[in-house]
Amino acid sequence: MQAYTTIITTSHYFYAKALYDSIKIYDSHLNFHVLVVDNENEVEPYENIVIHRLKEIKKTFPDDYALIEKYEIDKASNLRWALKPLLLKYLLLTQGYDKTIFLDPDLCFYNNPLFLFEELNNHSVLVTPHWRSSDAFIDSGNFDLLFTGGLFNAGFFACNKKAIAVLDWWLKCCSYRMEKQNGFYVDQIYLNLMPIYFPNQVKVLQHKGCNVANWNMIECPRVKKENEVIIEGTYPIVFIHFTNGTISTILNGRDALLKPLLEKYVTLLKKHNRDFKTSQMDNSSKQSWINRFKKLKK
Q1: Between helices 244-251 and 289-297, what is the axis angle to 10°?
Q2: What are the start-end ranges of the E strands in the chain?
Q3: Strand pairing partners for 241?
Q4: 23 with 30: CB under 8 angstroms?
Q5: How far is C-alpha 255 from the geometric centre of its chain's CA atoms?
Q6: Per-residue tens of pLDDT for the chain, all 298 residues
Q7: Kind and range of the H or E element at 292?
Q8: Secondary structure (DSSP) of 65-122
């Protein structure tokens, strides 16, 4: 059995539902689990999404959870990020799954992702490179971020039951430090070390249509081919990571080929939250999403 999962605060449940809808097109019988970290209020059921609460994780793995309990003062960020390895372990060891894929809630799928589970037949872990610019003289900002933000993006992480030792190691690292300074970048920077310390288990995914975002425009050039946007003229877009930076880059015309794909994402989000306001985005967003939606319609 296999499952997808994400971690949210209650306010971001509509993101999880939009993500679910985008996958359901290709995997109609998907198992989709959502961990809600911030309160115990009822969350409305949606199709076959399974909701989990923090108390389940605490009760099942009290010693493991004790390692990261200190981050409860920041549930929306540090705790949520540090919980990734523990949630994956929970699904693999207590919910009957053999393979799991963690996804950030701000992802959207455009092609069939089932090949990712097939990759887990031969590898315990899959990670996706950021594919930031490899040339400092072309894009120094993204080149520098390879050394401060990590080689891999933690918005995607796939593993099977053989990866428990890897997950335990990742959790222990998160318990050590969760910061964005001094060479650390919360949970994400530790992924740099996985292919070194677990070389026979970790595969670096080479499919450049996975985790498409503003940071990989140079190394993953978008090409229009027979009415479809293809990466490098070879890779179909499997999923896009719609961070604020990705959205801004599309709307300001620098990544214009992705605009129709953003429009599809907007439709999914509006299906689940017609009253979505800027306050629900982080402070780096300079323009309200309502205005962005208007721009998309022009």
Answers
A1: 40
A2: 2-8, 32-36, 49-53, 99-103, 107-109, 125-129, 152-160, 202-204, 210-212, 222-225, 228-231, 235-236, 239-241
A3: 107
A4: yes
A5: 20
A6: 999 999 999 989 999 999 999 999 999 889 999 999 997 777 888 999 999 999 999 999 999 999 999 999 998 899 999 999 999 999 999 999 999 999 999 999 999 999 999 999 999 999 999 999 999 999 999 999 999 999 999 999 999 999 999 999 999 999 999 999 999 999 999 999 999 999 999 999 999 999 999 999 999 999 998 889 999 999 999 999 999 999 999 999 999 999 999 999 999 999 998 875 423 344 344 444 445 444 444 4
A7: helix 289-297
A8: HHHHGGGGGGIIIIIHHHTHHHHHHHHHHHS--SEEEEE-TTEEE-S--HHHHHHTTT
Stretch (H or E) spanning 77 = none
User: Sign (positive/negative) of CA torsion 23, 29, 34, 40?
Assistant: positive
pTM to 2 decimal places: 0.91
